[in-house]
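Example record for the data management plan.
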Amino acid sequence: MKEIKHFINGEYVGSASGKLFDNVNPANGQVIAKIHEAGEAEVDAAVKAARAALKGPWGKMSVAERTEILHRVAAGITARFDEFLEAECLDTGKPKSLASHIDIPRGAANFSVFADLVKNVPTEAFEMATPDGTGALNYGVRRPKGVIGVISPWNLPLLLMTWKVGPALACGNTVVVKPSEETPTTTALLGEVMNAAGVPAGVYNVVHGFGGNSAGAFLTAHPDVDAITFTGETGTGETIMRAAAKGVRQVSLELGGKNAGIVFADCDMDKAIEGTLRSAFANCGQVCLGTERVYVERSIFDEFVARLKAGAEGLKIGEPNDPSANFGS
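Corresponding structural encoding:
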């Protein structure tokens, strides 16, 4: 059976402990691969590789050189589009019709977008009077933060992982990624693209596992991780904040929310229904900015509810290969 290994210092490696866990296709419940679970040794090796890479060729590159490589990463994902699409749909069970126009294109575009953006980010400067009358010029200098721990979710695995990794690498940092244990495949596959694009070893690392007493906890507690970014549920975010408090390290957290939609009586009803159906049910509703409650002006409440109900009843659950499916099975 296929094994999904860690990607550390430019190479795929297994766990010293030999611990494996199942990768299950949620569409049919079948085990499609065995995933290596990282222990402290693998996480430490990944962090050390990332730290060393900061002092290697990656740390000496100009912005132009880094961004050229990131454009090659984006092109590499696109060149292997079908492979990434198949892997993402097997992990998530979502329809290919959805992943083919959101997950994979956006997953690739995140590298090129942030590569272009970082070339145009200004720094601050201001003049200041001094007692001798000559004045002083103060200006900002941007430097990489260091080793960034990335813990990414299962709802849009490639897209939301590269949404974090893209800007981190564009700014000259190195990363250690812990993807969701539910959806590890595209994050691991990206290692091949990184190597082919010329990303130096140690810049992009991947470790697999769970949260407590596993890869997630070992990564967030590691003293050589300079900052942590996480998307997921609030309880895990609180745990990460506590871990990051040691060393007063920076965190970026996107946690649970209850987004509201508001519909007024003068709305275009067709568009209101279409938009609400999309925002509430796309990707099975598992979207960070998905609508979870709707406030409707009383005079149109009954019509809105009836039409929204009819629209929801028309949605179809199906296999990833079913082009008419709205939801994965």
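Summary line stored alongside the record: Residues 3-120+143-254 form a domain with the Aldehyde Dehydrogenase; Chain A, domain 1 fold (CATH 3.40.605.10).
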